[in-house]
Amino acid sequence: MENPYDQEPIEEITEALKNNDAASAVAKVQEYLEKLDNIPLNIAITGESGSGKSTFVNAFRGVDNKDERAAPTGCVETTMEVTAYPHPNYPNVTLWDLPGIGSTNFPASKYLEHVGFEKFDFFIIISADRFRENDVKLAQEIQKMGKKFYFVRSKIDHNLRDEERSQREFNAEKTLEWIRKDCVQGLQKQGVESPKVFLISSFDLHLYDFQLLEEIMERELPAHKRNALLFAIPTINLEIINKKKEAFQAKIKYQALNSALVAAVPIPGLSIVADLGMLVVFTKQYKIGFGLDSESLQKLADSTHVPLSDLQAVMTSPLAAEIRKDVILKVISMSAVATALMAAEEGLRFIPLLGIIAAMSASYASVYKVLHDCLNMLAEDAQKVLMKALGLNTSV
Fold first, then answer.
1. To the nearest 5 percent, what fractions of the chain are helix, strand and coil?
2. Which of 234, 240, 337, 382 could make a disulfide contact with 290, Cβ separation 3.0–4.6 Å?
3. Domain 41-232 top-level CATH class
């Protein structure tokens, strides 16, 4: 059965335009864009006490452990009830911090019922060392319920530091391989077939296996939920930046179509005002999605120990400043094509019939061009910032 989220409203929009009902067509476009932005994704994080569940929840959401929005962390069990932590920028994505199964009186089968397993899209089972009997029983019950689950071995940075202190000839790669092999063999002995274990440090998501975990989660999600995960995931490497860019790009045709439909209303100055407002809103979304807003940049600076001013210095586009209408006008002025199209639109809108159609075409083309340019500029800035933060060559 076709998923309703995958159904683009092209036929409905076309029918509304045939009936000369631009308002209905605008409503259809806006409804579709809102639906895309509000696809729910619910991720369950579970594991035994002290495994690092809450720290992982915070890292995934891009929230510092000391932030008031953070899941509480500590050396003792801090999660006794199912607690929802919506993503601060994408509230449709929620991470659920579950009580460690070892801290409850429920067997694995009843535990899932207790936490309300049906609402979760997948489970991440976290351990700070070997996976225990409770972890395995929980995984087996999750599998019976037809849900996906992933084993995450946390605190890898601590393990590497401990091994380096205790070994005369320390080798990070060999140590990581030994930890992975030990976890896999332990799970196999307890009856888990072909287990996949991801080695992760919540304080250094760009290292180790977080990218591989993201790729597998994305691949195994239903198609309509993949972008929800992608937008919420921290921008830890160039591949994620490119994926986010492609996802934003796919929405531009509807954002531009919305502008074109507004252009069908012959009120002086209305289209350009509406266009600028929309351009500001969508460009802000790109900036937040790439982690270029001030809060995300500060967190990146703190976690990588690169001064915030150094990260900001490599952002060379006009959009490095606060996104306002005057900034968008500056971007428009940099493109002769966009400037000409917007000027033509204003003149064409007052020519009966054919003029309105031409104005709609000009409006679509101009907004598409400006959003495309803004997206490219911010994606390039995001690449430079990430490479600077990771100490790589920032020439793109």
1. 60, 10, 35
2. 382
3. alpha beta
